[in-house]
Amino acid sequence: SRPGSAVKRLNLELNFETRSGRSTPGAVPSLSPLRDEFYGTGGGRGVSATVEPPTPDERGVIVAPHPSDPTAVIASRSKEARDANPDRLDLDRRELSQCPELIDEHRLRLLNYQHNAITRISRLETVRNLVFLDLYANAVEKIAGLECVPQLRVLMLGRNRIRSIGAGLARLQRLDVLDLHNNEIASTSGLNSLASLRILNLAGNRLVSLGDLGNMTGLHELNARRNEIGDLARRGGARGDLVDPRIFPEPRLPPNLRRIFLSHNKVAAACHVAPLRDLATLEELALDGCPVDARPGYRSDVVNAVSPAVRVLDGAPVTDDDRQGVDPFPTVSVPTFGGMGVGS
Question: Are 322 and 310 in contact (CB under 8 A)?
Answer without folding.
Answer: no
